[in-house]
Design a protein that fits this description.
mainly alpha; 135 residues; 70% helix
């Protein structure tokens, strides 16, 4: 960004968008419960694919995508293209396994919730287990 205000606004937009993205998965709304696990998985899987595509674009592009980076004063140890490739690699090697890990946790919890123990308790949904045991 050519101005600090524009850069700050863009950073805040990324932060707010991240919160808005994770909100339906992580936080139940007061008047509705959290998305059920199958919906959570269907919500996260396409994003993981898009995320990996963006990371690949950053890593394999032969020139910096954001031309403004080329105008920044050189640091002496990293070029604009090297910085972009490092960011893409970080997205790919850290964030993608993190997303897949979250999806794995959701899946395991979903499977465990389906198995109610002999006392009628469920690991993820006690209210569902009570109705299952009562019925």
């Amino acid at each position: 960004m050519p101005t600090q205000l524009g850069s700050f606004a863009l950073d805040m937009l990324w932060l707010v968008t991240g919160f808005a993205f994770w909100w339906p998965v992580a936080v139940p709304y007061p008047r509705r419960s959290r998305f059920p696990p199958p919906v959570q998985l269907l919500y996260l899987f396409p994003v993981t694919l898009v995320h990996s595509g963006i990371a690949a674009t950053l890593v394999y592009n032969p020139f910096p995508i954001y031309r403004i980076y080329e105008l920044a004063p050189p640091t002496g140890w990293v070029t604009a293209l090297g910085d972009q490739q490092a960011a893409g690699g970080l997205m790919w090697l850290v964030s993608t396994p993190l997303m897949l890990g979250v999806m794995g946790i959701i899946f395991v919890r979903w499977m465990e919730a389906e198995e109610v123990d002999e006392e009628g308790r469920s690991w993820i949904s006690p209210s569902r287990a009570r109705t299952t045991a009562a019925g």
